[in-house]
C-alpha cells in the first residue's frame, strides 16, 4: 500500500462534502495510515492532515458530528501548504 499525498486526501474529502462518501469511511481510511506503523508516513504535513481527517467521524452528541464546516477549511489549509 503506497502512502497518500495531500491531493489524494483532498480527493477523499470532496466526496464527503457531496455526500458520496461517509465521514466514517474517510476517517477509517485515514486512521489506517495514522495508526499502522507498517504504513509509516514520513511527510509531516501529510501525516498531520491524515491525523486531522482520522477524527472526521467524531460525534459531538448522538447523531451530530463535531466537524462539518471544518472540512472545507481543512481542504483550503492543506492545499496551501
Q: Tell me roughly what share of residues is in helical segments.
A: 55-70%
Largest sheet, in brief, is: 2 strands, antiparallel
| Helix vs. strand class | mainly alpha
Number of strand segments: 2
Termini Cα gap:
24 Å
Question: What form results from the Cα inertia axes?
Answer: globular
**Radius of gyration using CA atoms only:** 12 Å
List SSEs in N-to-C order: HHHEEH
Chain-averaged pLDDT? 92
- What percent of residues are in strands? 5-15%
Q: Looking across the biggest beta sheet, what order are the strands in? A: 1-2
Extract low-pLDDT stretches.
none
By DSSP (H or I, 4+ residues per run), the number of helices equals 4
For this entry, give a set of tags.
6% strand; single chain; 81 residues; 2 strands; two-stranded antiparallel ribbon; globular; mainly alpha
Task: Describe the protein's architecture and organization.
With 81 residues, the chain is mostly helical. The protein is 58% helix and 6% strand. It contains 4 helices and 2 strands. The chain has helices at 6-17, 23-35, 44-54, 70-80; strands at 59-61, 64-65. It has a two-stranded antiparallel sheet with strand order 1-2. β1 and β2 form a beta hairpin. α1 runs antiparallel to α4 (70-80) and α2 packs across α3 (44-54). The longest helix is centred in the middle third of the chain and has 13 residues, at 23-35. The two termini are 24 Å apart. The mean pLDDT is 92.
Amino acid at each position: 500500500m503506497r502512502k497518500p499525498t495531500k491531493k489524494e486526501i483532498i480527493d477523499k474529502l470532496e466526496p464527503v462534502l457531496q455526500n458520496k462518501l461517509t465521514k466514517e469511511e474517510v476517517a477509517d481510511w485515514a486512521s489506517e495510515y495514522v495508526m499502522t506503523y507498517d504504513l509509516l508516513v514520513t511527510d509531516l504535513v501529510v501525516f498531520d492532515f491524515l491525523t486531522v481527517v482520522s477524527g472526521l467521524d467524531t460525534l459531538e452528541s448522538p447523531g451530530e458530528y463535531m466537524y462539518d464546516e471544518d472540512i472545507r477549511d481543512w481542504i483550503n489549509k492543506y492545499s496551501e501548504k
